[in-house]
Amino acid sequence: MDKVLAIVGPTGIGKTKLSIQCAKRWHGQVISADSMQVYQKMDIGTAKVTPKEQQGIPHYLVDAQSYDQPYNVKIFQDKCRQAIANIKQAHCLPIICGGTGLYLKAALYDYVFEEEQDDPVYTKYLHTLTNEELVQQLKQVDPKSLEKIHPHNRKRLIRALQICHSGETKSSREAKQEHVPLYDVYFLGLDMDREQLHQRIDQRVDQMFDAGLVKEVTTLFSDPKTWEYTSFQGIGYKEFRAYFQKEMTLDQVKEKIKTDSRRYAKRQYTWFKHQMDVHWFQPDDPKIIPHVEAWLQEGK
């Protein structure tokens, strides 16, 4: 199987810096597995890797999608797998860098997203139901799917019912898939003391505001019509809705972004520690190089 290096971990821990170092050392090219850095014009709030930081290393799926267009895990899966093929064709090492766990798993494992023929009449009907009514409907047709869907996650409840309506339940479809890696993947995870990580996250948010985050968000999203964009749902952007509605001050928005970022980091740790076989290191651990070297030599 083709080798793929995946650098994972929580927001703000230093994945980007390490991905560049690895690319330079092992003749690699980088694929961003960040669900927000893919959007054009959204640079500050996503902590997007800059051309200077890229140091001439080719990057895929950065600035690749218009911010007013939807982006999802299926699109990422297709584009990421194509990028891996292109990088291998260039005789380089694919290095995936990012913290969006579901995106990584969808691209690197045998996840299959089948196209459903959406029934607009049925979908319109589902949108008239309350969350409780959606849960009751799903209990009748696919109760097993509720083990993985929170009763308040309206979007996923509707999606599961749409899948059932197309002829097959969501849970039975997933059960057919083995969820095995399609590549020889080395998951390199970055970890550090939680208090230290929280300080880094807070500092980074302060730097975003100093760099002009308020102007960036106002330019892109001050119109209420834009609040439904997928791109606006990201941390660092969605918190400004209350500011636009004059319900929060900028200082309150800043604190909310810090809080949401810290909580997101905790969820990222939980995901990676339960979903993937990750090799964890401190960001500057000298053992990273020999461990990756040993993996690269395996099978040669």
TrEMBL record:
Annotated site location: Interaction with substrate tRNA: T100
E.C. numbers: 2.5.1.75
Cofactors (names): Mg(2+)
Residues annotated to bind substrate: T11, G12, I13, G14, K15, T16
HAMAP family cross-referenced by the UniProt entry: IPP_trans (MF_00185)
Molecular function via GO: ATP binding; tRNA dimethylallyltransferase activity
Family: Belongs to the IPP transferase family.
Span list, region Interaction with substrate tRNA: 34-37
Keywords: ATP-binding, Magnesium, Nucleotide-binding, Transferase, tRNA processing
Function: Catalyzes the transfer of a dimethylallyl group onto the adenine at position 37 in tRNAs that read codons beginning with uridine, leading to the formation of N6-(dimethylallyl)adenosine (i(6)A).
Chain residues that bind ATP: G9, P10, T11, G12, I13, G14, K15, T16
Pfam families: IPPT
Biological process according to GO: tRNA modification
Keyword Disulfide bond: no
Catalytic activity: adenosine(37) in tRNA + dimethylallyl diphosphate = N(6)-dimethylallyladenosine(37) in tRNA + diphosphate
Subunit structure, interactors included: Monomer.
Name of the protein in question: tRNA dimethylallyltransferase
UniProt cross-references to NCBIfam families, sorted A to Z: miaA
